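debug: dumping io for the single-chain case to check the tokenizer round-trip. Nothing else runs in this session.
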Amino acid sequence: MNFILTLVILIVILGVIVFVHEFGHFLAAKKNNVHVYEFAIGMGPKIFSFKRKNDPTLYTLRLLPLGGFNALASTSEGAVDAKEDEILENKSIWQRFVVLFMGIIFNFILAIVLLFLNGVIYGSPVTDPYVGKVQVDSPAYKGGLITDDLILKINGKSVSSFDDVLLETKFGETKSVYEFTVVRDGKELTFNIKPNVTKDEDGNDVREFGFGTSAKREKGFVNAVKYAFTSTYKNSLSVFKILGKLLTGKIGADNLSGPIGVFSVIDNIKSSGMESLIYLTAYLSINVAIINFIPIPVFDGGRILLLLIEKIKGKKLNPKVETTINNIGAILLIALMLYVTLNDILKIF
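debug: decoded output
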């Protein structure tokens, strides 16, 4: 029963995130008069479908409740029964950009709305990196940190959220002693902290400092609005920083997680209540938005990059070349997904 509940929550979370992304593309396509053959909720075999009056789009519900898709009139994928001015490639560069970019925008909107709801219902967590509980006799305690210290820098690098603190202490430059710059009672202070070093299951070093995040919260509608936008912005910065560390090798690819990894996270946090699940959904939606923004084939960002190349060249790209690039990207993406999935399975067992 516990497994089934976690699986249902996973399906709902991923389904909502992907559906909202595809719905953004759908609305933009309709607004720009791009022919949409089908707008699907879910994947796999159709179990229900209908058409609206004076609307050529087939709306379908499919068996596997994971996301959805748009079938647009496109020269690269076929454009049967569509007028010339309804084909995506025949639209202006700006119109195609809007169609491609709106999925990303909708994922950010979803995150903002969910974080706002959390702020209104449960109170808005303060996003600044205040020190929470400091364990007695821990490295942080011995080094001089106390509760409510506001961390400004770690080893000279500015931090603006607790995610930044975790990135610098876990994946930053390895040091025997870490320099923390904090604000306490209006004064800027510096403390040198030597973490305890232990080994994880894989034999990697784990540095422990002995302090947690602050539990500060603010009530009210205005604070909820501020929290929604601020948290979305800071989480976005954190994702970009993680991607940067992945590209530079400071974070290994074995730290990536797919649906199985998300399943494990949900299994661990679902007992904490709806607030944690709503926050996780918002955070994953931000991840989907940013990953789709990356300028590599298959993702929206890759197709946007091709638009930029077309704009610079002043003429459309050869459809066969574009299709080849996207096919290569799809193969690489599938390989990455298989690696991440296998890695998630190995972590479990």
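debug: round-trip ok. The two ends are 20 Å apart (CA to CA).
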